[in-house]
Amino acid sequence: MLDKALDGIRIVDFTQIASGPTCTLILADLGADVIKIESPAGDVARRLGPPWIDDVGVFFLALNRNKKGVAVDLKDPVQRERVRRLIQNSDVLVENFRPGVMQRLGLDYETLSRGHSRLVYCSISGYGQTGDWGSRGGVDGVIQALSGIMATTGEEGGAPVKVQVPIVDIVTGFLAANAVQAALHDRRRTGLGQYLDVSMLASALMLQQTAFAGYLSSGDLPRRCGSAAPYAAPNEAFPTADGWIMIVAYHQERWAVLCDLLGRPHLVQDSRFVTLADRVKNRSSMFEALADVLRTRKTAEWLHILEAADVLCAPIAGYAETVALPPTLQSGLLVDVPHPTVGSMRQIGCALSLPAQPVKRGAPAIGEHTAEVLGHID
Fold first, then answer.
1. For the domain 2-207+357-374, what is the CATH code?
2. Could you give the residue numbers annotated as active site?
């Protein structure tokens, strides 16, 4: 089972907020022994909200399950030395402090690897550890702004729009977890660890791989297009009599089927819509031609008609509808996570380790496992 894939791997986790904790969450869900190092005040994410449960931010609880919690004052030389000795008996270190912090603490890769050549050391930062912007801090909203995400999200002519979930933090964490696992695999071959420099900006650019490929090859700037895919049409949300429906029918065969189902077979031969390129170019005209018909029936009626003909479609579901969908319920992704103070809470589990196994533990209380982890280290 993948929930035991990293069994026996110990990870010392100096991360906070979202990008780093997402990385170590994935590794913990895959069976690694993750030891989260916090200051006595705790990860800042504990205070992010709403919502909170017993004064602990759900943001924190969602990203720190299956980890052990150790609280230390890294400015104290004695406590810092105990942590350093813990690292010497661990496989991986992950940190997302601003560049330079770990060097000042004497916990940087160059220092630690002298006596621990097998250490895999992953640093996550806004812009990488070197270069003109290496010393800058980076957060999700700022990186969304700089990376082009906000310039291309939203309706044409509208204000810049941020993706509500911290999408850059999350994708950076995914990439960092992938890099750590690749480095551990490489260590089996070479016997040596390595240093990993994971940048949030680089991750955000990779997230937009197809869009940047289009810009770099043509020089054409992407435009905001709301719910639509800029490279395919129809591939967007349309209004119905009681809401909205997402329809994806850009393949020629499905385009013809859709037009027939809507009682507009002549649109297939309309010179504005004959090819995919034509439909993308004349999207607004195509949208209105289809929307005029789709507004005449309720969403559920259209779903019944379109699904029966294998036209890809979906209602615009809110979270309440999404968690109740058969594929959500049947996937095992909804897991009940135990917690020492807040009780059991439901979360989205790890999609990589399905079918889901019981979660070992919820996010730790501040310093919950300090004695267990450091008690034997003088």
1. 3.40.50.10540
2. 169
Please tell me whether residue 129 adopts helix, strand or coil conformation.
coil
Q: Give the pLDDT confidence score for residue 358 in this predicted structure.
A: 67
Residue 326 pLDDT: 92
Residue that has been written with the tokens 């037009």 in this structure: 259
Give the whole-angstrom CA distance, residue 236 versus residue 377: 58
Cα dist. 373→10, 341, 368, 378 in Å? 11, 20, 10, 12
Q: Nearest 5°: phi and psi at 120?
A: -95, 120
pLDDT tens track for 59-115: 999 999 999 999 999 999 999 999 999 999 999 999 999 999 999 999 999 999 999
Domain boundaries, the chain: 2-207+357-374
The DSSP symbol for 297 reads: S
For 72, the token pair is 């230390």
Q: Measured between alpha carbons, how far is residue 15 from residues 64, 67, 168, 334, 365 in Å?
A: 10, 12, 16, 25, 15
Q: Which residues of 180-216 are buried (b: 16+ CB within 10 A; e: fewer)?
A: bbebbeebeeeeebbbbbbbbbbbbbebbeebeebee
